[in-house]
């Protein structure tokens, strides 16, 4: 950690060049020959990436940024804040601390937080940044988190883990046992140190695969930010063996969309029906959850087809996702397509449909954009149909 980067003139230069092209800046002569030019450029690039994702870091003075990859891989402040709403108690240990964004928000809920980071340089940077952010209740430990857990010999209210995929796991199906730390292998040891464990995984992990590797799962949170799934959060409690609750949340600028259900609840049966006046498309968190029958049952909506995951109703209702008014429902045939959509402009979505968006556009000469939204899908009688809609939400 080079503290010379905190020189006021260098900090002023970094701030003045936020958003500038790094490749163009790299061609300039280093105005600060006593400090590595690559390090200064890295600060500019990383801080630029932090502007929207980490506003508390961006606005604080004398923050030192690690590599831009660390910024890209870390939780955003919005998802970290949601994560912190899950935990409570006196103490929490984070076994995979990283940049410390999650711990910053945990520290608002928990009296004492411990940040473990195997990279000593990153650990020092995080310790320095917490001082600049005025967070006194986080202690940083560099080194192997398993060794830290043993040496501290404490009963923790929460253990938090964000395992990362090993380099040799690329190309493989995402499995927790291919990550560091190996949570399935160490789970019993973790439960000797805490009754509650919170695990963050990438959305790439299949929920059913995760459940095969983990035990004592009580709740799974599927967290989307602006309709892009960012992470899965797994709440584990020692000795728990009851129903598993799926909680989906889509964090939006002005509100949060939520939908919860109990996994494998056989009482939630869908009702199928033909297109009515309104069409509903669930947000990405619900799509990841697989709770498609539960959506139909909870909102009293007809499902178009078992595999279409689109819903319809005669009366408009509030819904966690996109909502459309159906202007026309046509069979997918040459005559109908020529009459209604050939050589027009429309936004196209396919759901349970054999042709791709690209092939549909090419075949019928449909330009992208405009105010029309067309869903190419399959109805309950297995007929291919097109729903021509206008967007409400």
Key terms:
393 residues; alpha/beta; Arc Repressor Mutant, subunit A; Rossmann fold; 3 domains; nine-stranded mixed sheet; eight-stranded mixed sheet; 15 helices; globular; Class I SAM-dependent methyltransferase; methyltransferase
Mean pLDDT: 95
Number of strands: 19
Fourth CATH level, the homologous superfamily of the largest domain: Vaccinia Virus protein VP39
Uncertain stretches? none
Spatial order of the strands forming the largest sheet:
3-2-1-4-7-9-8-10-11
Terminal CA distance reads: 48 Å
- The CATH level-2 architecture of the largest domain is identified as 3-Layer(aba) Sandwich
Total helical segments: 15
Structure description:
This protein has three domains: 3-68, Arc Repressor Mutant, subunit A (Orthogonal Bundle), CATH 1.10.10; 74-262, 3-Layer(aba) Sandwich (Rossmann fold); 271-391. Strand 1 (89-94), helix 7 (101-109) and strand 2 form a beta-alpha-beta unit. With 393 residues, it is α/β, with parallel strands linked by helices. The two termini are 48 Å apart. The chain has helices at 8-16, 22-25, 37-53, 55-59, 68-73, 77-84, 101-109, 120-132, 145-152, 183-193, 207-213, 284-289, 292-299, 334-340, 357-364, and strands at residues 89-94, 110-117, 138-142, 158-161, 164-165, 179-180, 196-201, 217-225, 228-237, 245-251, 256-262, 271-272, 278-282, 302-303, 311-313, 321-331, 347-350, 372-378, 384-391. It has a nine-stranded mixed β-sheet, sandwiched between helices. It has an eight-stranded mixed β-sheet with strand order 12-14-15-13-16-19-18-17. Strands 5-6 form a two-stranded antiparallel sheet. The longest helix is centred in the first third of the chain and has 17 residues, at 37-53.
């Amino acid at each position: 950690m080079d503290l010379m980067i905190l020189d006021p003139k260098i900090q002023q230069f970094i701030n003045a060049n936020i958003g500038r092209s790094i490749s163009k800046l790299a061609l300039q002569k280093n105005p600060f020959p006593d400090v590595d030019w690559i390090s200064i450029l890295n600060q500019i690039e990383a801080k630029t990436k932090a502007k929207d994702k980490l506003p508390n870091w961006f606005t604080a003075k004398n923050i030192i940024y690690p590599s831009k990859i660390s910024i890209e891989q870390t939780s955003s402040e919005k998802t970290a804040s949601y994560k912190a709403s899950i935990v409570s108690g006196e103490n929490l240990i984070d076994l995979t601390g990283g940049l410390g964004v999650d711990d910053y928000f945990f520290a608002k809920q928990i009296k004492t937080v411990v940040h473990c980071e195997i990279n000593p340089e990153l650990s020092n940077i995080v310790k320095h940044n917490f001082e600049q952010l005025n967070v006194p209740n986080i202690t940083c430990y560099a080194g192997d988190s398993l060794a830290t857990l043993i040496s501290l010999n404490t009963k923790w209210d929460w253990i938090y883990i964000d395992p990362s995929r090993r380099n040799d796991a690329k190309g493989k199906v995402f499995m927790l046992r291919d990550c560091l730390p190996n949570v399935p292998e160490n789970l019993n040891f973790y439960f000797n140190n805490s009754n509650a464990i919170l695990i963050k995984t990438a959305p790439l992990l299949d929920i059913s695969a995760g459940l095969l590797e983990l035990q004592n799962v009580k709740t799974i949170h599927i967290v989307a930010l602006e309709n892009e799934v960012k992470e899965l959060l797994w709440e584990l409690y020692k000795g728990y063996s009851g129903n598993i609750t799926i909680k989906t949340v889509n964090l939006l600028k002005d509100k949060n969309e939520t939908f919860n259900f109990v996994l494998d609840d056989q009482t939630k049966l869908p009702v199928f029906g033909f297109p009515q006046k309104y069409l509903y498309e669930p947000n990405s968190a619900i799509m990841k959850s697989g709770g498609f029958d539960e959506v139909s049952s909870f909102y009293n909506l007809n499902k178009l087809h078992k595999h279409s995951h689109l819903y319809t109703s005669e009366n408009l209702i509030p819904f966690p996702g996109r909502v459309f008014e159906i202007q026309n429902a046509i069979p997918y045939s040459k005559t109908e397509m020529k009459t209604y959509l050939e050589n027009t402009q429309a936004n196209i979505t396919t759901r349970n449909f054999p042709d791709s968006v690209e092939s549909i556009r090419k075949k019928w000469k449909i330009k992208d954009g405009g105010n029309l939204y067309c869903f190419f899908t399959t109805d309950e009688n297995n007929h291919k149909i097109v729903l021509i809609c206008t967007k409400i939400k």
